[in-house]
Amino acid sequence: MSKKKMNQGRRPAASQAESADKPATLKDLLNADIVSKLKSQAEEMRAEEARQKADQRKREEEARKAEQKRLESSFEYLLNNSSMDWRKHKS
Are 35 and 27 in contact (CB under 8 A)? Predict the structure, then answer.
């Protein structure tokens, strides 16, 4: 039992030594308000990118619909893409 108590006592000391040996990060060096401003700017950039992607998808979908509408009004397209099995339409 005494061995367990000794091992438990050494762990916190080791973690304190590790934290003291770690180099300072940029987050630690910057002021808290600057970090929050950078985080908010990153969020805004992500939101802007998502909005641009949504706009691009919408434009592509509208272009596809316009092309389909143009093709469906073309007799040549309808003739080439229709089924040649006219028996199924026979009464």
Answer: yes
